[in-house]
Amino acid sequence: MVKASFCIRENSVSFTVTGHSGYAEEGSDIVCAAVSSATIMTVNTVTEILGEKGKVKVEDGFLQFEASGKPARDIIMGLKLHLEGLSQEYPDYVTVTTEV
Hints:
Elements: E1 2-8, E2 13-18, H1 30-49, E3 55-59, E4 62-67, H2 70-89, E5 94-99
Parallel strand pairs: 1-5
Antiparallel strand pairs: 1-2, 2-4, 3-4
Helix pairs in contact: 1-2
C-alpha cells in the first residue's frame, strides 16, 4: 500500500510518500505510476520552476519533501488533492493522512 502523509505548518509544508501499492506487477502498476509521476512532478515544479530550495530525500519506495512559501504550498496542496482522489478510487492501495 502507498501511504502519503502531509504536514502543514505555518511556515512550511511537507509530504512523505512510502510503499508500493501492490495493485499490479511491477511495470504494470497504474496506481504506483500515478503516485510516482505526481510526486516527482510536484518536487520538480517547486524546485525547478519556482526555484524554491526544498529539502528532498528519495529512496526505493520512499520520497520526502519539504518546502516553504505560498506558491510551493499551493502546489503541494494540489498533490494532496490528487492523492486523495486516488485514495477514493483505490482505497485498498492508497491512503492519505494530514497533520496540521
